[in-house]
Write a structure and sequence with these properties.
The protein is mainly α and about 110 residues long. The protein has one domain. The protein has helices at about 5-20, 25-35, 40-55, 60, 70-90, 90-105. About 20% of the residues are buried.
Length: about 110
């Protein structure tokens, strides 16, 4: 997607959607990244926010990979992408709240 290959990314994400072994979290993260690439900020926020609200360390997403540090990386990826979305929507106060929340998770 970084090279503007949104159609190609869509095909890969469609393949993940069709894979019965893919988790709902993986599918949701893929949809959110595609929405970001298309500039669909409200849709990206709708998809990303619940991933962190349900579980700040997002164990369901981290189950895609193994190991506690992968869990931290995935959680950070979701938080970072959500922060980009919120800034793009002009919701700077919500970014500060998100930062405070993720700082608390990392300090515990």
């Amino acid at each position: 997607m970084q090279a503007g290959q949104i159609d190609t990314a869509q095909k890969h994400f469609d393949a993940v959607d069709a894979d019965s072994d893919a988790s709902d979290s993986q599918r949701g993260l893929n949809r959110a990244l595609l929405a970001i690439a298309k500039g669909e900020w409200f849709e990206a926020q709708r998809l990303l926010a619940p991933m962190l609200e349900t579980d700040p360390e997002n164990a369901s997403v981290s189950s895609i990979l193994q190991g506690w540090w992968f869990s931290m990386l995935i959680s950070d990826q979701i938080a970072n992408n959500l922060a980009v979305v919120l800034v793009s929507l002009g919701k700077v106060a919500e970014v500060r709240t998100l930062q405070s929340t993720t700082d608390l998770v990392h300090s515990s």
